[in-house]
Amino acid sequence: MADLTGARWHKSSRSGSNGGDCVEVADNLPDIVAVRDSKDPGGPALIFPRAAWRAFIASLKAQ
Q1: What is the mean pLDDT of each run of 10 residues along the chain (63 residues)?
Q2: Is residue 49, in this structure, part of any structural domain at all?
Q3: Name one Pfam family in it (predicted).
Q4: Which range of residues forms the domain containing residue 50?
């Protein structure tokens, strides 16, 4: 299990004020990127290897 104690969570600047229906990302952790539901900050987080996250973001930008 990943240690998310030092995670600094942030939302996209494009989130707007839609009532909090967003995801938050913590990309300051060594070797991993964590993603969670902003409505449930104490709930589970998805953990991705940093390389997989970069590939995911690159594929979104290529759309």
Answers
A1: 92 69 91 93 94 95 92
A2: yes
A3: DUF397
A4: 23-61
